[in-house]
Design brief:
Blueprint lengths: L1 H11 L10 H5 L24 E2 L5 E2 L9 E7 L12 H11 L4 E5 L13 E4 L2 E6 L6 H17 L12 H16 L7 E5 L6 H8 L5 E4 L7 H4 L5 H8 L4 E4 L2 H15 L7 E3 L4 E6 L6 H9 L4 H12 L6 E5 L8 H14 L5 E5 L8 H21 L7 E4 L5 H10 L2 E4 L8 H8 L8 E5 L14 E3 L4 H12 L3 H17 L2 H13 L3 E4 L10 E3 L3 H15 L6 H22 L15 H11 L1
Parallel strand pairs: 3-4, 3-7, 4-6, 7-8, 8-9, 9-11, 12-13, 12-15, 13-14, 15-16, 16-17
Antiparallel strand pairs: 1-2, 5-6, 10-11, 18-19
Helix pairs in contact: 1-14, 3-18, 4-5, 5-6, 10-14, 12-13, 12-16, 19-20
């Protein structure tokens, strides 16, 4: 078969507002402003800044990162091992930020500790550092398996019926976040902190409790659910309140961002204005940053040589589909991925058109020690066995199922060989497999992407590009697979070209660079003693236009001769107006701004009083 032979040949040929006074009263204050609605931040994540060119003349957006000392914190840290494939978008997006630009990346080690605070174990990695923490043994099960993955994970994916957990899990979750914050205190003088994912929702609050006052951002890689779903999470109000301790909250999609804002309106009466929510703590900006892949790197994966063992494994696998069409699914064996519904869909396809297409389902085991996952794995395997018994032959299985892990280079070739990519999670933050499948296709003979409308990638790809389906309805998935199997070449090329153009126009380096540029706007940079009115605090870059207006008004005032009392009074009114425009939002941007009372210019005030007599 041409597609399979091409895939094998590729591998052998050579070479990713003013608010009210503090406390709970202020936090629950109803704010004026229009809540963000669908599409308001459609262009969020697309930066207009000029970028340099990388290899082959393509933009190198990572090279445009702000000049700052960055701390990245996530549950786990990338392996930074060239012999191991990167696992997920986080590694692909942040490894170069560490290795090339000197960031520090903190996360959990594979070892548990006794919970005592230790010096930060820094390991030099390129220009940056990695610190792997031995999280406390006593709290780790409740933090990770309990609250993070048995409570938050299903809730984030709107599957509350799968939620479980034990009393005390939340306390363990907070204890581990507090432990990580104490470790990060060692690097409190670095410029900004970037925190990732649902394991660390309250980390900014823990950092602030210790007195860490640097700008802190958070990015959620999972979906965020609607208000009626988040209410199933214990202490959900407390969690959302702690999230507003971050200066910048990033989401994958408009749906997730709008769901979060809806939760703030329902549970706190809070509204956003221009993408900003103001509380007694200060201002939190909310934006969409859709994560992508690095097509250049994926092209390298596609052309990379495999080890002899993996080459043999891949060749043996592809030979099983020789002479027939096949679809591919690549997912962790997780109930959010909709693999069971996908298997049912293939049963419908093969019942209507026997032998028309096979499925290669790669599903590495996930959280095998959790009961919900064990039951799901058994259900998927039983369903596959039934489909194979009914539709398979002695020569070929209808569904070829593997729990093996494959390198990115091997996956790239499997994607390229497959006629259809089936990506049908029940919910997903983004799902980079969808973008990887598109990136791996032969431009002259591309496959077709069948995509869940509830994956974040569906907000990037329209119905004119991918075949969008409801993953809860196997009949709908089956119809799309049959349509993809029989789609004319001209339509396949048109759909693929539109998708690959989008993937190449906004890559994972764009994602990390755009997020950090936005976070950089919260960085404290300008000494407020230049203002005299503001005391010895600091302001941030977002206030600079207002500061320039104030400085210009003050300069104009000082240039007027004291004898020109009427002009002096009018100019002072301009100074006061410009100052108020600067100070009103400024006082609520960061708690640290007002360190000392502003000195009063008694001579000027007396002069103005005399001029008014």
């Amino acid at each position: 078969m041409v597609r399979i032979r091409d895939a094998l040949d590729t591998g052998t040929s050579g070479a990713l507002e003013e608010d009210e006074a503090g406390g709970q009263t202020a936090f629950d204050t109803h704010l004026d402003g229009v809540p963000l609605e669908q599409g308001q931040h459609e262009e969020a994540g697309r930066s207009a800044s000029v970028v340099s060119s990388g290899p082959e003349g393509r933009p190198d957006r990572v090279g445009q990162l702000p000049d700052m000392k960055l701390v990245v914190i996530s549950n786990r840290v990338a392996p930074f091992d060239p012999n191991k494939p990167q696992t997920g978008g986080l590694a692909a997006g942040l490894e170069p930020v560490v290795e090339r630009f000197g960031a520090l990346w903190m996360g959990s080690s594979d070892t548990r500790g006794d919970g005592t605070d230790q010096p930060l174990p820094l390991v030099k990695t390129g220009a940056g550092d990695v610190a792997r923490l031995d999280l406390p043994e006593a709290d780790y099960p409740g933090y990770y398996r309990g609250f993070s993955n048995s409570t938050l994970w299903p809730a984030m994916h709107s599957l509350h019926q799968r939620m479980s957990g034990a009393e005390g899990d939340y306390d363990s979750y907070r204890n581990v976040n507090a432990f990580i914050a104490r470790a990060a205190f060692d690097v409190r003088d670095r410029d900004v902190f970037w925190v990732h994912d649902y394991h660390l929702l309250p980390l900014a609050a823990e950092l602030h409790r210790l007195g860490v006052d640097r700008p802190t951002g958070f990015f959620l890689h999972t979906p965020w659910p609607a208000p009626d779903m988040i209410e199933h999470v214990p202490r959900h109000r407390e969690l959302m309140k702690s999230m507003l301790e971050y200066d910048l909250l990033g989401f994958q999609t408009n749906r997730d961002l709008n769901n979060f804002l809806a939760c703030l309106r329902v549970y706190f009466g809070l509204k956003s204005k221009d993408g900003i929510v103001t509380t007694g703590r200060g201002q939190t900006r909310l934006q969409k940053f859709p994560i992508g892949i690095d097509p250049r790197q994926f092209a390298e994966h596609l052309a990379a040589e495999l080890s002899p063992a993996e080459e043999e494994k891949l060749s043996s696998l592809l030979e099983k589909f020789e002479g027939s069409k096949f679809a591919i699914g690549v997912d962790r064996l997780d109930y959010t991925k909709g693999i069971d519904k996908r298997v049912e869909a293939f049963n419908h396809v093969l019942a209507a058109n026997p032998g028309s297409i096979s499925l290669l389902q790669i599903a590495p085991s996930s959280r095998a020690d959790v009961g919900e996952y064990q039951k799901y794995k058994e259900g998927v395997e039983n369903a596959i066995s039934q489909v194979n018994a009914e539709h398979g032959t002695d020569e070929r299985s209808a569904i070829l199922y593997s729990n093996d892990s494959f390198s990115q280079a091997a996956l790239a070739r499997l994607y390229r060989a497959a006629n259809v990519g089936v990506v049908t999670p029940l919910r997903d933050g983004m799902n980079l497999v969808a973008k990887e499948y598109v990136a791996a296709q032969d431009p002259n003979d591309p496959g077709v992407l069948v995509l869940s409308k509830f994956a974040g990638a569906a907000e990037d790809f329209s119905e004119d590009e991918a075949l969008l389906v409801d993953p809860n309805h196997p009949e709908e998935i089956a119809e799309a697979i049959s349509r993809a199997t029989n789609m004319p070449l001209e339509e396949r090329v048109r759909r693929w070209r539109s998708m690959i153009d989008k993937i190449e126009s906004y890559t994972i380096p764009d994602w990390s660079a755009d997020y950090l540029r936005e976070l950089h706007k919260s960085r404290i940079t300008v000494p407020a003693d230049q203002f005299h009115h503001l005391g010895l605090g600091w302001t941030n870059e977002a206030q600079m236009p207002r500061y320039r207006d104030y400085a210009a008004a003050l300069t104009a005032y000082n240039e007027i001769e004291p004898a020109a009392a009427a002009l002096k009074e009018a100019a002072y009114a301009d100074v006061k107006s410009a100052f108020e425009a600067l100070a009103v939002p400024l006082t609520h941007t960061q708690d640290r701004i007002w360190d000392l009372p502003a000195p009063r210019d008694r001579a000027r005030e007396q002069g103005l009083e005399a001029s008014q007599d």
